[in-house]
Amino acid sequence: MLQQTRRRNGDRLLYALDGELSQRSSAGRRRPADRAQGVGRTRLLCARARNAHAAAQQLVAEHGGQLPADRRQLLRLPGIGEYTVGAILSMAFNQPEPILDGNVKRVLARLCDIGDPVDAPATLRELWRLARLLVETAPPDAAGACNEALMELGATVCTPQSPRCLLCPLVDLCLAAARGTQADRPVMPPRKTTPHYDVAAGVIWQGEPFASPLLIAQRPHKGLLGGLWEFPGGKQEATDVDLPACLRREIMEELGIAIEVGRAGDGGASRLHPLSNYAARVSHQTCRRRTAGARLR
Ligand code: SF4
Questions:
Q1: Which residues, given as ranges, of the chain have pLDDT below 50?
Q2: Is the whole-model pTM more than 0.90?
Q3: Based on the domain organization, do 103 and 156 belong to the same domain?
């Protein structure tokens, strides 16, 4: 959960997941608006949870329930990338393997006063090389401590805004501090404008709301949010006069089902979901199925 996020964000996600699961397991029914608010959080958490589950199953099947102390074997586990491999091997097995998270990138970019965009492939290769160099020169048995120290330094001293150079143990080695370029390092790539989409999703009851089966659909296993379950719907197109029209079209196209869309305020909810590459305002509309149609896939 704490992978690639700050501790307090990880805590928030964990509490959100905990709350989501306990509400799902409670006997009481939740209103559609409550459920709609939980969907975004749950989607975010589900991919990691599914990977963790799949990795645990693979560990039991292939490694007797133990994490292997081998880079290639670790990389074969679902959801495990270079960063996690470095964390496991250095902290659990004290192997001199590097970690490169946002904090370490910032510290190294400042220490070496790197003036190229920090996420450019060549810069990343150089940062990985520097991170490896550092951990390989750490004292014996201190690989994990070295990586943790770099991450902590970035989190607490070499912070994005106002680094506390006077307190920094590396100030005498730091090129950015010597040249006064700390505020310009790391060089961030230019911000892209984030596209916004209006999306309609149907909370489709077979008959009476809360007294009949509710339709949910599984996304294709390949692609964005693959294999997750969702309220069916889609993006509003220029030809859709409004979101209910968009929803009727999408549900007919995807599922071959004709629906009646409830009136605004009829148990629906609208929420902005800022995702990594785009933002979607998702309006959940309470609907009722009008005709028998194809079975949900
Ligand atoms: S001296 Fe300042 S800029 Fe350099 S690593 Fe330390 S906190 Fe960061």
A1: 1, 25-41, 293-297
A2: no
A3: yes
